[in-house]
Amino acid sequence: MRPPFGLRPSRLVRLVRLVRLHHPHDREILRLAAPAFAALVAEPLFLLADSAIVGHLGTPQLAGLGVAGAILATGVSLCVFLAYGTTAAVARRLGAGDHRAAMAQGIDGLWLALLIGVAVAVVLAAAADPLVAALGASPAATPYAVTYLRVSALGVPAMLAVLAATGVLRGLQDTRTPLVVATVGALANIGLNLLLVYGVGLGIAGSALGTVLAQAGMAVALAAVVVRGARRYDVAGRPRLAGIRAAALVGVPLLVRTLTLRIALLVTTFVAASAGTVAIAAHQVAFTVWMLLALALDAVAIAGQAIVGRFLGAGDVAGARAATRRMLEWGAAAGVVLAIALLLLRVAFVPLFSPDPRVQALLSSVLVVAALAQPVCGVVFALDGVLIGAGDGRYLAWAGVGTLGAFLPLAGLVLALDAGLVALWWAFNGYLLARLVTLLWREHGDSWLVTGATLPGRRGAGHG
User: Fold this and answer.
1) Which of the chain's ends, N or C, has fewer CB atoms near its CB within 10 Å?
2) Under 8 Å CB-to-CB from 254, ≥6 apart: which residues?
3) How far apart are CA 336 and CA 378, in angstroms?
4) Interior/surface letters 433-450, b for 16+ CB within 10 angstroms, e for the rest
């Protein structure tokens, strides 16, 4: 049998040589990316644990979790600029040697996260019924989706605070503290879910409540670390309107960029839900696995945000360019490794998520398609992180609009032809290829290499 992707032993040797620590930037990339990798993997373990626990309550419950999880993930991930924008802003200030301004921007990000978190929580709780209906949930899955979404909305402010505090620490070149907090939080989430779902008998509501409690604990722990750091540089912890406004304005392009990505993901969920309960149940698990792999690959992107932001803050364009090229190599290699792992291991873990043989068969087929896209994802996510670290949010926003425009007709065709879940995931791979083209084109130019202590477009932050 041919090895996956035609990777003969000689090619595997070349791949291993690629990631040997011989490049000047390797050790720093690894120092930041390794803890970020573990922390990022811990995050989707929240939903994976929920999926495994809820899946044994029944297929309608798992399908309900799939719909509610997609809505919740959309609301939270639209605010990922709280982490990404803060990382880039803090890293630039650090590169310029201005620690006090770096911590002030971190405090601004925390306040912005809390304000947005309360607003998002209110919207999700109040609009749970129409949001679930909009995604085409089946009658059997709808009540479970509404319950999970309403309970989970309580934890949104904490989730966004975790994003903002993590962004501050990444900008300070610290990815270890978020790792520790994320690991403890993921383990606590599993224990709380088992206790509340089966021990207390709360069902799917217990799964949501367990995640809320775990996220709240993580938010308190990370915010405490940031506040202590701010006090060392005599930065007040009170909210500053000018700083919060500046952080929000810089986040708008990243919000647009993320919105286009989330629309693409929501469209896939809508098309999958239209295919029936079995399809959406399989899609829920496949989507969660894909997110797990995406966040694992995002570790290189996190390193890119912190390193490139620091280099450009210090005015070192050559360093930023060299680090970027090396991170692209790391991203591609990591994508190949994850693709092989997914192809080989799917037989072992697919049965863990559902006892339904129809769900298992469909899920296994979809995961093959998802695996083939991992090398592309590795490069895409690395480039995305580099351009975010450079403050190139406006380009990312316009590129996101363009790639979404290319994907929607493909998804519409799958829906119109009732082509099924596997065809839908092939269409999604086309979307990823479109993102690859737009990001590579930008990286080859020099327009994104803007130096200085302040992110492009950020004004009025002050020192606080």
Assistant:
1) N
2) 80, 81, 84, 85, 388, 393, 396, 397
3) 8
4) ebbbebbeebbeeeebbb
State pTM to two decimals: 0.76
List CB contacts of 168: < 8 A, sequence separation 6 or more.
Answer: 86, 87, 90, 103, 105, 106, 109, 110, 226, 229
Q: Which of 46-50, 126-130, 243-247, 374-378 has the highest mean pLDDT?
A: 374-378
- 384: three-class secondary structure by DSSP: helix
Distance CA 418, CA 274 (A): 9
Neighbouring CB atoms inside 10 A of 400's CB total: 24
Rounded to an integer, what distance in angstroms lies between the CA atom of residue 98 and that of residue 214?
A: 34
What's the gap between Cα 277 and its chain centre? 26
| Residue that has been written with the tokens 């803050």 in this structure | 313
Q: How confident is the model at residue 44 (pLDDT cuts 50, 70, 90)?
A: low
CB atoms within 10 A of CB 182: 25
Domain spans in the chain, listed from the N-terminal domain onward = 8-444
* Cα–Cα dist 425/362, whole Å: 12
Asked if pLDDT for residue 409 goes beyond 90, the answer is yes
For the chain, the C-alpha Rg in angstroms (whole number) is 21
CB 294 within 8 A of CB 313: no
Provide the H-helix boundaries in 314-349.
317-349
Q: Which of 7, 361, 50 is nearest to 190 (CA)?
A: 50
SS (H, E, C) 36-73: HHHHHHHHHHHHHHHHHHHHCCCHHHHHHHHHHHHHHH
How far apart are the C-alpha atoms of 255 and 83, rounded to whole Å? 11
Nearest to 32 by CA among 456, 385, 439: 385
